[in-house]
Amino acid sequence: MATFANAIAKISSLLASNLSRAITAVKHREVEMEIVQAISENVTEAQIPVMIGGQFVGYANLTFDKSTYELQMKELRLAGGEQRINYIYNYGTMPTNRAKALPTLRYVISRTPRVIGTISLPVDLTNELRVGETITLDGGKEHEILEGESFLLKGQETPAENVPYTAVSADDVPVVADWYEASKNQEIAIDYGPSSKQVMPAVEEGDPPVIVQPNQSGQLVLTVGNWAANALQLATGDLKISATSLVIISTATKADSDLWADAEVFCVSQGTDILNFTCVTTPVGNITINVIVL
For residue 101, which of 114, 115, 91 has the smallest C-alpha distance? Predict the structure, then answer.
């Protein structure tokens, strides 16, 4: 095993035997490797000096765990952005091996706070939303909770609980996300679910936060076989609308426009996630429409 004592002994020996001669390059490399090996086998923490504008400002710390052969980085910061708890794996993708996951601080360029997904079913905050638990997000996605992940709750009986919550551990209750502020409008990016972004407007103290659905768009199809007595009720799926939503409808192509005009199709009303259409004559083909919800 290489040690500093061995390296010093080798240096002393070389000096003693080379009083009148230069130490050869080979001998120099032997000493150099002895020192490097001694350092690598004995040091468990490393520091990377940080220089800004030619001035030393501090160190970035690394820790080597000899029992697991893991090099642990306590903080990882990219060029700019906002702090987010995430996981970095030491190799490949290990979705079930949490012991190999290294919790770090990840900084993303976007300053939009992120949540993993939305949960419309009621959550028992006393016993649920714990690290390691598998939950169902809106859109039907199953997700195993990791430490530091945040979720937007939407189905709580207590309105004040319909805010982003962060999972802390397997034993501790979740907490309101530290970036959430009821005093200002906040756009939230959503990783999984029927929409990618939502807005939480500022609310008065004591008032429950209100989740505002952003503008949405998509294509829907008026299927020939679904017309009955010159009427058709169309479910809007991922496009969330209400009876008071402002909805803009247009045909997708000229062929769709011709079918729409020939059958004299008209959208007569709307409800919760439905659009109601009438026609003078049943269209002879499916009509694809573009729908924008404001």
Answer: 91
Interval 96-113 mean pLDDT: 46
In this prediction the pTM is 0.43
How do residues 266-293 score in pLDDT, each as one tens digit?
999 999 899 999 999 999 999 999 998 8
Q: Which long-range contacts (CB under 8 A, 24 or more apart) does 247-250 make?
A: 247/275, 247/291, 247/292, 247/293, 247/294, 248/291, 248/292, 248/294, 249/275, 249/289, 249/290, 249/291, 250/289, 250/290
What burial letters (b/e) apply to 262-285, b meaning 16+ CB within 10 Å? Answer: ebebebeebeeeebebbbeeebee
Own/partner long-range contacts of 82-86 (Cβ < 8 Å, ≥24 apart):
82/107, 82/108, 82/110, 82/111, 82/112, 82/113, 82/179, 83/107, 84/108, 84/114, 84/148, 85/147, 85/148, 85/149, 85/166, 86/148
Helix (H, G, I), strand (E, B), or coil: what is residue 118? strand
Distance of alpha carbon 276 from alpha carbon 48, whole angstroms = 65
pLDDT tens sequence across 204-241: 766 666 666 667 788 999 999 999 999 999 999 888 88
